[in-house]
Amino acid sequence: MDKKELIYQLKQQIIKQLNLAGKTPEDIRDDDPLFVEGLGLDSIDALELIVLLQQEYNIKLKNAEEGQTIFRSVATMADYILEQQTGAAN
Amino acid sequence: MQHTELYITESVSVLNRTVVHNDKVLLEAEEHTEDFFQFLYDRLNIDYPKFFKMDALCKLGTAAAHVLLRHFKKEEYLPEEVGIVLSNNSGSIEADINYYESSKTFPSPSLFVYTLPNIVIGEISIRYGFKGENAFFISEKFDAQWIYFYVNNLMQNQNIKCCICGWVDVKDEQYNARLF
Q1: Domain A3-89 falls in which CATH fold?
Q2: Gene3D superfamilies, alphabetically (chain B) (predicted)?
């Protein structure tokens, strides 16, 4: 799966997992901030995103502080997933 | 303890998919209405996206409070002067079961946060900015005497000037809310 496809899939998963009623993947720009501004997610949503990474991509966040960078936007999440998948494959 | 004169100014009930405000039927969902809460959200113009993240108990309480407080003059009270005292029979059993089911695979944080019945009070308080005393009681059926005693006490000792009271119960997709 290339980055573009992964980003679209992530947007669908985020909408479903976080019950973002009325939102479509098209409403979320790749570089929109996920927290406060942008999508306006909160701390509970952050935990749900960690669960999503584990559940859907088998990726466990090793360091909670990394979350701030990884969950900055859908694009940064996709970068992190691809990086982890590449690392696991090598 | 002295008894204060307490008045009920408004009432709302959500029962058997019917919303009644001050004894007048406001809304009635058809038998086949698939998502009762989506129906309430749309028809009551709730316009609060967080509604969709809530569990059924909080959705029910929030929808009932939305009707109850439509004409409430919030500006006449300090946030600390508005109390909330609710009760029910089933606690947060639906959220508890949903969380338990999720915990068999990946426990869901957003389900976990609703595994206490008093969260419905928190959701109403957040939406309207109320900061007064509050309590959630579990009892077999609505105990009007106890609620009267408790609210009377809040008014005399905790500087509460008005209070949202009632019953908010969800079990097996049976919704029963009576707020006043």
Answers
A1: 1.10.1200
A2: 3.40.47.10
